[in-house]
Amino acid sequence: MSPPAVITKVRDWIAAARRVVVLTGAGVSTDSGIPDFRGPNGVWTRNPAAEKLSDFRYYLADPDIRRAAWQSRLDHPAFGAKPNPGHRALAELERRGKLHALITQNIDGLHLQAGNSKVRVFEVHGNVHQAVCLSCGWKGPMQTVLDRVRAGEDDPPCKECGGILKSDTISFGQQLVPAVIDGAMRAAREADLLLTVGTSLRVFPIANAVPVARDAGARIVIMNAEATQFDDIADARLDGLISEELPQVCAAWPKRG
Ligand code: NAD
What we know:
By secondary structure, the protein is α/β, with parallel strands linked by helices. The protein folds into 2 domains: 1-34 and 82-125 and 175-257, 3-Layer(aba) Sandwich (Rossmann fold), CATH 3.40.50; 40-80 and 128-169, SIR2/SIRT2 'Small Domain' (2-Layer Sandwich). Helix content is 35%, strand content 17%. The protein contains 10 helices and 9 strands. The strands form 2 sheets. It has a 6-stranded parallel beta sheet with strand order 3-2-1-7-8-9, with helices on both faces. β7 (193-197), α9 and β8 (219-223) form a beta-alpha-beta unit. The chain starts with a helix and ends in a 7-residue tail after the last helix.
């Protein structure tokens, strides 16, 4: 749990800031029942072999990996998950006019479900609710493809061209969407306060948003249970439960008089 004085200080900084940019990772969604990758109960911490399912090169080359990936999508907790108080606090920050941009590495769509608007949210790793064909670029709802998997197609091909289908997310080894990553890094440069939430800051290039914002003069606040490589350039660190501490730092101070 973070000391109350640090929570108050960060709440003051947010109240005074004009362009808050938030960078979220898997840790903001663990309290919605979606495990992270690298935390103590993370998917890869518990089963290092699962890392292959998130690697684009294996996905393209190995039908067994694709079949395993489709099976794991069937049970992906993102499909039944609901936003938690951490997501809702960030939606409230936007309603108050404080949020310049919300950059997320998450693919679960929970920030949009919580009420943040599409124009403010940069989903730099895509969204699992959509499927894409890697050959012809067809896109459509993930649930219609999952229905085919449930009906017995263990590696369903694209109905338009026969190509390989995948969730419309960016796997490791896959190219980012330039317009999305450029927009996110521009927002980081424009921030006067950058708040990172629930990310180990080990995935690049997006982790560079921290030094980029710092060099452009922003305050840096890191909210994460575990230490990160950027802690030494942070103005404050919060290490308590995100779903408890994020609503506290995002809460508006009562109006005077
Ligand atoms: P990560 O797994 O590397 O790090 C998550 C961090 O959050 C850990 O350091 C952990 O200690 C911390 N954390 C977890 N729950 C917390 C809580 N309740 N309170 C405080 N801290 C908490 O995650 P990352 O940095 O986002 O990178 C992983 C990659 O995996 C991302 O690219 C993302 O696309 C993907 N991913 C997404 C989801 C999702 O969409 N919900 C889930 C797993 C992985």
